[in-house]
Amino acid sequence: MKVIASTLRKGNVVDMDGRLYVVLTAQNIHPGKGTPVTQLDMRRISDGVKVSERYRTTEQVERAFVEDREYTFLYEDGEGFHFMNPETYEQVAVPLDIIGDQKAYLQEGMPVMLSVHNGLPIAIELPARVTLEITETEPVVKGQTASSSYKPAMLSNGLRTLVPPHIQAGTRVVIMTEDGSYVERAKD
Question: For domain 2-62, which CATH number applies: 3.30.540.10, 2.30.30.30, 1.10.10.60, 3.20.20.300?
Fold first, then answer.
């Protein structure tokens, strides 16, 4: 659907020449003399290229309809990553290039938010925290204080993180999916 350029906000998805862009910043500029303009900084969803565009505030821009729905992760195979809509039981396969580095945190049965455009998934948002097990870490060094130093540890998903000295192999910990940092010991 076409909308006036001045109504676009951060997070909106626009369709330019058949390609989808997500708006990073939208700024309306009213010079003292001349036509007011809308400055848009956008990122192309397909490959991450950043683009800057300037429109007259009254110009029409094609806004893409994107639906955010909750899906449950099922499994990964040669086709990609398979998710199921918990209400309709409809399954969708998401290619690796959309998942990216986040694939290490995907766990069977994990609820995720998928952004869908014309029936095709274009983006994924994982939960902020996941619980993983420490597979290996260095032994505790006597006299090391708990607050000041962290030691490297290997997680069950193959990634490395830093944990406090009292954490040992076999301990379940909560990790931030955004940057892979240690939050706390798991309560379960």
Answer: 2.30.30.30
